[in-house]
């Protein structure tokens, strides 16, 4: 039975979404093409009808993950986004979590296409966090520069990476998230020039 263009497009989207979650959960090297296609509900042979290589899928899957993050960021205030990002729920659900924290170190060793997708994704998140003037209002109402937004993103990603590096039941894993949440709150109370 011949597959329609619409069905082929939907099938491809399902493979990309499945790959995005599996790559975040297990890393790029932790997911084989056969396992990935089975998880998406397809046979291994169908992969090369849709993608030229696993590296091509890795780039598309990263873009999908960044799009999901952009949607979450757009739907929340900066303070709510930070609170979610530094939550144990986010830490424990890699497959549904931040692409940067889950795959940033892996991406650094991948093709130029994958790294370019990460650069575009980071730029997109910056644009979503910032308003049309290149600034965003912080929880205390002041405007935040691009450099401050980058610093905040780096701190959030770093905190999540460090927390995930600890055993799941480690008190240190929670302490890292709590310290970064507390630092953010402390900066607001003290009128520090940092935004988040």
From TrEMBL:
Keywords: DNA-binding, Transcription, Transcription regulation
InterPro entries: Homeodomain-like_sf (IPR009057), HTH_TetR (IPR001647), Tet_transcr_reg_TetR-rel_C_sf (IPR036271)
DNA-binding region coordinates: 32-51
Origin superkingdom: Bacteria
PROSITE patterns: HTH_TETR_2
HTH tetR-type domain location: 9-69
Name of the molecule in the record: Helix-turn-helix domain-containing protein
Organism from which the protein derives: Luteimonas flava
């Amino acid at each position: 039975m011949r597959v329609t263009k619409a069905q082929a497009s939907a099938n491809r989207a399902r493979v990309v979404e499945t790959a995005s979650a599996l790559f975040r959960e297990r890393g790029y090297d932790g997911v084989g093409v056969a396992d990935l296609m089975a998880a998406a509900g397809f046979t291994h042979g169908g992969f090369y009808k849709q993608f030229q290589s696993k590296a091509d899928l890795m780039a598309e899957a990263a873009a999908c993950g960044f799009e999901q993050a952009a949607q979450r960021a757009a739907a929340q205030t900066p303070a709510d986004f930070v609170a979610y990002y530094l939550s144990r729920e986010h830490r424990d659900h890699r497959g549904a979590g931040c692409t940067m924290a889950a795959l940033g170190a892996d991406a650094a060793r991948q093709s130029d296409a994958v790294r370019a997708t990460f650069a575009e994704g980071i730029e997109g998140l910056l644009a979503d966090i910032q308003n049309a003037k290149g600034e965003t209002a912080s929880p205390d109402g002041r405007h935040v520069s691009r450099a401050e937004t980058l610093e905040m993103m780096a701190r959030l990603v770093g905190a999540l990476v460090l927390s995930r590096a600890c055993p799941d039941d480690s008190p240190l894993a929670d302490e890292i998230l709590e310290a970064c949440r507390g630092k953010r709150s402390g900066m607001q109370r003290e009128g520090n020039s940092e935004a988040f």
